[in-house]
């Protein structure tokens, strides 16, 4: 019975960390997708999510090694890293889900103003759009950008604003990242509890050798 419980905890811990490994890769892929649309200049949180993805991959590998070897030091390091990951990922996920469109537009406008003209023109050509947001407050900036725009769509006299394109992809990306991150955050609590129990269990093979 002891051997079955030990093996079950070991296999479960390995399986959960294998899932975390896939989630980490998925987070990096989705964040890279958002970055390819220029969202990284709008929402710095996506860069943070990429860091979380890399760290999650590292922690999951650490958990698999600790589960296979039942190394006390590795498992303890894994539990601490998972606790830090929970706090960080839970905060980032809540931020992703709570960020309203008005806040996204404000961040986008601030980021756009910090860009050089060369960066703006390059982004407009990449996304095939002109200007950022046609608002009453920043209308003079918008008209200046449209006049300087060199995107291909300008020849057709039908261009979307870069802000609309960015915010559309930002909403999709943030919803996915926030949902996946929040799910992983709560599952990490269960994983930490499982790792603590597994760390305190005795290996039945070692126990049988000692008793004999």
Automatic annotation (TrEMBL):
<dbReference type="InterPro" id="IPR018499">
    <property type="entry name" value="Tetraspanin/Peripherin"/>
</dbReference>
<dbReference type="Pfam" id="PF00335">
    <property type="entry name" value="Tetraspanin"/>
</dbReference>
<dbReference type="GO" id="GO:0016020">
    <property type="term" value="C:membrane"/>
</dbReference>
<keyword id="KW-0812">Transmembrane</keyword>
<feature type="transmembrane region" description="Helical">
    <location>
        <begin position="12"/>
        <end position="33"/>
    </location>
</feature>
<keyword id="KW-1133">Transmembrane helix</keyword>
<feature type="transmembrane region" description="Helical">
    <location>
        <begin position="75"/>
        <end position="100"/>
    </location>
</feature>
<feature type="transmembrane region" description="Helical">
    <location>
        <begin position="45"/>
        <end position="68"/>
    </location>
</feature>
<protein>
    <recommendedName>
        <fullName>Tetraspanin</fullName>
    </recommendedName>
</protein>
<feature type="transmembrane region" description="Helical">
    <location>
        <begin position="174"/>
        <end position="196"/>
    </location>
</feature>
<keyword id="KW-0472">Membrane</keyword>
């Amino acid at each position: 019975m002891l051997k079955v419980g030990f093996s079950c905890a070991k296999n479960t811990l390995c399986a959960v960390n294998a899932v975390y490994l896939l989630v980490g890769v998925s987070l990096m892929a989705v964040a890279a997708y958002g970055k390819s649309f220029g969202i990284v200049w709008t929402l710095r949180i996506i860069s943070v999510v990429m860091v979380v993805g890399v760290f999650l991959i590292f922690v999951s590998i650490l958990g698999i090694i600790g589960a296979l070897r039942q190394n006390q030091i590795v498992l303890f390091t894994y539990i601490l890293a998972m606790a830090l990951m929970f706090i960080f990922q839970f905060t980032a996920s809540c931020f992703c889900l709570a960020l309203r469109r008005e806040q996204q537009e404000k961040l986008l406008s601030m980021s756009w103003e910090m860009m050089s003209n060369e960066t703006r023109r390059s982004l407009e050509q990449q996304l095939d759009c002109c200007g950022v947001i046609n608002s009453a407050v920043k209308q003079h900036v918008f008209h200046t950008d449209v006049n300087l725009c060199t995107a291909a769509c300008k020849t057709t006299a039908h261009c979307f604003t870069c802000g609309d394109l960015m915010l559309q992809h930002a909403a999709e990306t943030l919803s996915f990242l926030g949902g996946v991150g929040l799910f992983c955050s709560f599952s990490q609590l269960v994983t930490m509890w499982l790792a603590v129990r597994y760390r305190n269990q005795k290996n039945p093979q070692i126990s049988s050798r000692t008793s004999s």
